Amino acid sequence: MKIKLYLIFLFLSYICLCQGNNSVATKLSPKQLQQDFDLFRTVLLYAHPHPNRIHDKQSFDQELDMYRSLLKDSLTSLEFFQIVSSAMSNVGEAHSNVEISEQIKTDIKTRAKLLPFDVHISEKRAFIRKGLSDESGELVGHELLSINGKKIDQIMQITDSISCQGTGYNQARIYRTLSYSRNFALAFFLYIDQSQSYLIEYRALGKEEVKATVLDGILPDFEIATSLSPPETKPPFSLTIDESRDVAIIEVKTFAHFIIHYKVKEYLKFYQKSFAQIEEVGVSNLIIDVRGNRGGQEKLGGYLLSYLIENPIQVHQYIFAKRLDYPLLDSLGVFHHTFSSKKFQAADSGYVMIDDRSSMLASIEPAKKNKFTGDVYILADGNCFSACNIFVALADFHKVGRIVGEESGGNYQDSEGYWATIFQLPNSGLGIEFRLWHLRTAVESPLHGRGISPDVSVQPTVNDILADRDASIEKVYELIRQTKSQ
After folding, report:
1. Would you say residue 204 lies in a domain?
2. pTM given for the model
3. Which among 81, 101, 121 is the end of a domain?
4. What is d(CA 414, CA 438) in angstroms, rounded to the nearest whole number?
5. Which of 327, 316, 317, 320 lies closest to 346, judged by CA?
6. Residue 403 maps to a domain
7. In terms of domains, do 97 and 241 share one?
8. Is 128 a member of any domain?
9. 256: alpha, beta or left? (left if phi > 0; alpha if psi -120 to 50)
10. How far apart are CA 254 and CA 239, in angstroms?
11. Is the Cα torsion angle 24, 29, 32, 33 positive or negative in sign?
12. 56, exposed or middle or buried, with CB in 10 Å at 0-12, 13-18, 19+?
């Protein structure tokens, strides 16, 4: 259980905080802390559609009791953030998140000295991929072994226990999140150590000799958040046809059309034109690249699959909400959506959406023309989350091609989605966010709390990253060559 890891490492973090390294110095009283935690707990259990996906209700309640028992002394807002974030991480669904307060953001922006390098995480090993100072620049490509006496695997265990970036027992999304931009440096500050300088141990790739050096931290030059995300790209999709390799590549970077202000019909028009062009050219291999696609509307993935299936498929088994309206949230001034009783019917512990052809529960029909019947390869990674994770799960379950790359970043069978509830804890200023719908994908998996495992696993190495080499797509080309030679 995550709580056991948290208990082991919490006080290691507190040692650093109490040695004067914690620059977020304003303390909150036990009463203020308890008030905020009780509000967090009340709203979470009242409105969250599925907080017990990983732990049963009794165990989850006991864990919340344990976290509250830590609030006997005054704590800084950063220390309190660690506790609340760890409690939320036990929900095991990365739509449920805790955002740092404006006070913490300001303090990081103006006074924090962060690690002067970015990393690439691969299976709990960390490699320096970009130096941000003269000293750290010389270490690019080296394996990072420890920071201020904490081994990398220990740092990863703490991060996994406290961060809300993971999903269930799946760490793929955490690895990809920490490998993006300044997220590792941010996570180290938020969860581990608030030092001004860093003693690091490292070694060259393939070497046994361990070296050590001290690096000065650097002030951040970016907008602070709990974690940074890459911007959604426009246009969100592209088609490339390589006749010499007998390959077409459809890349869909996001299904979140509402964020980039694209219409659903623009996606459908792209799919229609792409598959018509693929059929006209006559290539026999299709690569669908959804790496980095963090989700959006899941039916956009379903419509893409319609060109690859022979029979109708269901996207959702059911959609669940704990309530139709939320008078408690109204009394607290917390923003939320309400749901029509015409579209939901009562079920155990809540309400499920009524199945009708106009709803999100309608099945996806096979395309009437331009269906692709060749070999399909789907490129996935830990950033395939939410609606993208649903797309990969459906493709895997219905055996639409081969999944190549990394484990996806969500749960195989379920997700939260739509209608975010966002509110701020009054004393600490921490932001609490979760979704009001629980979505059960119409698939079955024996792996509880894991993502979709690839048929062909590809873990990019630090050399791949440094050389900007696409190991996954090179693997697909190798598979295509092998198929042709048989």
Report:
1. no
2. 0.93
3. 101
4. 7
5. 320
6. yes
7. no
8. no
9. beta
10. 14
11. positive
12. exposed
Whether residue 194 is contained in a domain is answered as no
Tokens 């890891």, residue? 5
Q: Which two tokens stand for residue 472?
A: 């996954």
Q: Which of the listed residues 101, 127, 150 is the one where a domain comes to its end?
A: 101
Number of domains in the chain: 2
Question: Between vectors from CA 350 to CA 349 and to CA 355, what angle results, nearest 5°?
Answer: 130
DSSP result, 235-270 = S-EEEEEETTTTEEEEEE--B-HHHHT--HHHHHHH
Q: How far apart are the first and last CA of the chain?
A: 47
Cα gap 452→288, rounded to integer Å: 16
CATH number of the domain to which 344 belongs: 3.90.226.10
pLDDT by residue, tens only, the chain of 486 residues: 444 444 444 544 444 444 444 445 589 999 999 999 999 999 999 999 999 888 888 999 999 999 999 999 999 999 999 999 999 999 999 999 999 999 999 999 999 999 999 999 987 899 999 999 999 999 999 999 999 999 999 999 999 889 998 888 888 999 999 999 999 999 999 999 999 999 999 999 989 999 999 999 999 999 999 999 998 888 999 999 999 999 999 999 999 999 999 999 999 999 999 999 999 999 999 999 999 999 999 999 999 999 999 999 999 999 999 999 999 999 999 988 999 888 999 998 899 999 766 677 888 999 999 999 999 999 999 999 999 999 999 999 999 999 999 999 999 998 998 899 999 999 999 999 999 999 999 999 877 889 999 999 999 989 999 999 999 999 999 999 999 888
Rounded Cα–Cα distance for residues 276 and 1 (Å): 50
Six-digit token pair at 104? 């913490």
User: Which residue range forms the structural domain that includes residue 38?
Assistant: 2-101
- Given a contact cutoff of 8 angstroms between Cβ atoms, the answer to whether 376 and 403 are in contact is no
* Phi–psi pair at 286, nearest 5 degrees: -125, 125
